[in-house]
């Protein structure tokens, strides 16, 4: 494998798979079409329900059929999702498009991390994972920031134009994935091409049992999965409801790019800081990140318009630093043959929490007349989780 070429394709795929022109304005676009916050929250709930149901199967597909093929299929699903969203006449097709979008993300989630780690493992350079993952993360943050600038085109593009631009970006991500080389680091991976479709049910059964055994045997992996799910909850919800809070306070749609742009810059700063950190354990890092993220959610939910955008900045900066180290520890604790599956379990757990959280925050916003009420409650809960981890660590050190 030509590792340099592989990494160039990884970075291209990271950029185009994250470049979405609607992410900074999709709530405002749907609200402008007459959908309520509760309906928008329901659509987001459908997204996470689909993620819950399909996350682990998509990881299994990546492990059993190949990471490259799975990434290509994820890009194609992104194209179909954007086209459906552009032509949706009502909530039913909106929810269908959100489900396709979630399935496309499922195909990427866990698969790209597994492909990066095993590509480095083929070259004997696993220790470079944080560096490479940080570079990929920066590409994603740049794409997010660039995509958020699309809100400036609100006077030119209609909602269909935004989603057509998303379809082009998803197509480019599929083309970048097609140029990747499949990493082979185990005998089981080398034997993929020799297996027939008739053998897939039996292989799937063995894979499920082995993955469950791997998860049961790794307490570290289980703790990381739980921590990742809790600390990630404000990630998208702050961006989602800040859009509505800014419009409530008289902000024009053309300026909705600002929170996403600043959050992307903060994410890059968090990545740069995170790659320089060398924590002996992750508990102290979790405490610092959970408190920062909790404060960010509170600002996003309660601060006036001029300070509202600081909330997503704190959230994305802290998450970027946290995930560099949590994903490295996760990869070190699981086998290559089960890597994409078990990282997908991590994402599935997040979706399990998001299914009730998203519509509940929408309902609280409608009931209270402000989209920020739910964010304040969520921020307090995440900060409390960090304090609970710190209290447990202190309790254990006392030998209780």
- End-to-end separation: 52 Å
Query: How do the SSEs run, as a string of H and E?
Result: HHHHHHHHHHHHHHHHHH
Specify the helix fraction band.
Answer: over 70%
Number of strands: 0
Low-confidence stretches: none
Q: Can you give the mean pLDDT? A: 84
- C-alpha Rg, in Å? 20 Å
Described by the principal axes of the CA atoms, the overall outline is globular
Number of helices: 18
Strand content: under 5%
Largest sheet: none
Structural class: mainly alpha
Search tags:
single chain, 18 helices, mainly alpha, 79% helix, 400 residues
Task: Characterise this structure.
With 400 residues, the protein is mainly alpha-helical. It has helices spanning 3-18, 26-32, 37-65, 67-87, 91-108, 111-122, 129-148, 159-178, 187-190, 200-216, 219-232, 234-248, 257-274, 283-302, 305-308, 310-333, 339-368, 372-397. It is globular and about 60 Å long. The chain starts with a helix and ends with a helix. The mean pLDDT is 84.
Secondary-structure topology with pairs:
Layout lengths: L2 H16 L7 H7 L4 H29 L1 H21 L3 H18 L2 H12 L6 H20 L10 H20 L8 H4 L9 H17 L2 H14 L1 H15 L8 H18 L8 H20 L2 H4 L1 H24 L5 H30 L3 H26 L3
Helix pairs in contact: 1-6, 1-7, 1-8, 3-4, 3-5, 3-17, 4-5, 4-6, 4-8, 6-17, 7-13, 7-16, 11-16, 11-17, 12-14, 12-16, 12-18, 13-16, 14-16, 14-18, 17-18
